[in-house]
Design goal:
With 264 residues, the protein is an alpha/beta fold. The protein is built from 11 helices and 8 strands. Helix 7 crosses helix 11.
Length: 264
C-alpha cells in the first residue's frame, strides 16, 4: 500500500480523494493536512474516513506521493519548506499556472514532479484532466499518477507548454459553458416556464450535445445536422458569426492565459 500525503483539503483535494476511495481504496493510505484549518480537516476525516494531521512534515519522509492542493500564491513557500524532506517521492500539484519548471526549481535535483490540471467536474468523476511530467518521473510513478487521476475522469498527457495554453480550454471553459447555460435558462424563463423547468431544458440540451460530441462526430458535422441551410438555426448562427463569437472566445482564452501568468 502506498502512502499519499495531501496538503490542502479544499474542493479539488476532496474530489481527488473521493475518486480514489471509490476505485482504489485498498491501494493507498491517505493522510490529509492543510495550512491551519483544523475544522476543515475534521470535516474531511468524518466524511472520508482518512487520516488527518496538523503537521504534514511528520509524514513527508515516509510518503510515496505528495499531492499539493494549495493556491498558486502559496506554492513557492510550501515547496521550499518541503524540499529538505524529499527523497524519491512523486510530487504533483493542481495549482493553475505553476508549471513543471516552477515545481522543480525549489526542490532537490532529481525530484519527480507533475503538474496536473483537472476541472470542477472532478467532483462527479467527469473532469477532463491534463498533466505534464517533469524529467525525473519514471514509468511506475506515471502509472501511479494515472491510477489516482482515473477516479475523477479521463486524463491526457501533454507538454508543459501545451498545458499552459490548454488550461483555459479544459479548466476555465466550463465557466464559459455555464455562462451560456445561464443566458439560455434566462431566455427560457422569459417564455413562461419556471426556473427549474428552464434549467432542465438547457442542461439536458447541453448533456445531449456533449454526448453527441463524445461519439466522435466532428463539431462542424453536428452543426450541419441541426442547421438546415436557410433555416432558423442557420439564421441564429449567422448572428453569432456576425458578432464575432470566435474572436470573443479567443480573447477570453488569452485573458485566462495572461491572468495565470500574473497569479504566479
Amino acid at each position: 500500500m502506498q502512502k499519499l500525503l495531501t496538503i490542502g483539503a479544499g474542493r479539488m483535494a476532496q474530489a481527488v480523494i473521493s475518486g480514489i476511495l471509490q476505485q482504489e481504496q485498498d491501494r493507498f493510505h491517505i493522510v490529509m493536512s492543510n495550512r491551519g484549518n483544523v475544522a476543515r480537516l475534521e470535516q474531511v476525516k468524518n466524511k472520508y474516513g482518512v487520516e488527518i494531521t496538523t503537521n504534514w512534515k511528520d509524514h513527508v519522509t515516509n510518503a510515496d506521493i505528495l499531492f499539493l492542493a494549495v493556491p498558486p500564491s502559496q506554492q513557492q513557500s510550501l515547496l521550499h519548506e518541503m524540499s529538505p524532506y524529499l527523497t524519491n517521492q512523486l510530487v504533483f500539484s493542481v495549482a493553475a499556472g505553476v508549471g513543471v519548471r516552477e515545481l522543480e526549481a525549489p526542490l532537490p535535483e532529481g525530484a519527480a514532479v507533475a503538474w496536473v490540471m483537472p476541472n470542477t467536474a472532478a467532483e462527479i468523476g467527469q473532469s477532463m484532466t491534463l498533466y505534464a511530467l517533469g524529467q525525473h518521473v519514471n514509468e511506475i510513478q506515471e502509472k501511479t499518477l494515472l491510477t489516482i487521476l482515473k477516479g475523477i475522469g479521463p486524463a491526457q498527457r501533454v507538454t508543459e507548454e501545451q498545458l499552459h495554453a490548454l488550461t483555459p480550454v479544459t479548466g476555465s471553459a466550463p465557466a464559459f459553458m455555464y455562462y451560456v447555460a445561464e443566458v439560455l435558462t434566462r431566455l427560457a424563463r422569459g417564455k413562461g416556464v419556471d426556473e427549474a423547468v428552464a434549467q432542465q431544458l438547457v442542461s439536458q440540451m447541453i448533456l445531449g450535445s456533449a454526448r453527441m460530441l463524445s461519439s466522435g462526430q466532428k463539431p462542424k458535422d453536428l452543426i450541419d445536422q441541426v442547421a438546415t441551410p436557410g433555416g432558423s438555426t442557420a439564421a441564429g448562427l449567422k448572428v453569432l458569426q456576425t458578432e464575432d463569437l470566435d474572436g470573443m472566445f479567443e480573447r477570453a482564452v488569452q485573458a485566462c492565459v495572461e491572468k495565470n501568468k500574473e497569479v504566479y
